[in-house]
Amino acid sequence: MREFEYVQATDVSQAVAAVTGDPATSYLAGGTTQIDLMKDGVLGPDRLIDITRLPLRGITRSDGAIRIGALTTMEELAADLTIMERLPVVREALLLGASTQLRNMATIGGNLLQRTRCRYFRDITCACNKREPGSGCSALEGFHRMHAILGTSEHCIATHGSDLAVALVALDAIVHVRGLNGERAIPLTEFYVVPGDTPQVENVLAHGELITAVEVLLLPEDARSGYLKVRDRVSYEFALVSAAVALVMEDGVIREGRIGLGGVATLPWRAYRAEEVLRGRPAQTDTFQAAAEAALEGATPHRDNAFKVELAKRTVVRALSTTAGEDS
Amino acid sequence: MTVETVRMVGPPVDRVDGPLKVTGAAHYPADFSFPNLAHAVLVQSTVAAGRIRRISTRLAESAPGVLAVITHEIAPRLGRGPTTSLGVAPPPPLQDDRILHHGQHIAVVVAETPEQAAAAVRLLEVDYELTEPLLDLDDPQAERITNPSWRDIHRGDAGAALASAEVRVEATYTTATETNNPLGLFATIAAWEGDTLTVHDTTQWPYNVRATLAAAFGVPEDRVRVIAPFIGGAFGAGLRTWPHVVLAALAARWVNRPVKLVLNRAQMFTSVGYRPSSVQHLKIGATHTGELVALDHESIEPLSLEDNYLEGLTRATPLLYECPNVTTRQRQVRLNVACPTWMRGPGEAPGVYALECILDELAYELNMNPLEVRLRNYAETHPQSGLPWTSKGLRACYEQGAERFGWSRRTAEPRSMREGRMLVGLGMASAYYPYFQFPTQARATLDRAGTALVRSAATDIGTGTYTIMTQVSAEVLGLPIDRVRFELGDTTMPPAPQQGGSNLAASLGSAVHAACMKLVQAFLDVVRDDPGSPVQGCSLEDVTVADGRISRADAPERGEEYTDILERHGLAELTADGESAIRQDLDLAPGIFGAKFAEVHIDPDLGLIRVARIVAAIDGGHILNEKTATSQIIGGTVGGIGMALLEETVSDPRTGRIANATFGDYLVPVNADVPDIEVIFVGEAEPLNPLGVKGVGEIAIVGVAPAIANAVFHATGQRIRSLPITLDQLL
Question: Which of chain A's residues have a Cβ under 8 Å away from the Cβ of B47?
Answer without folding.
Answer: none
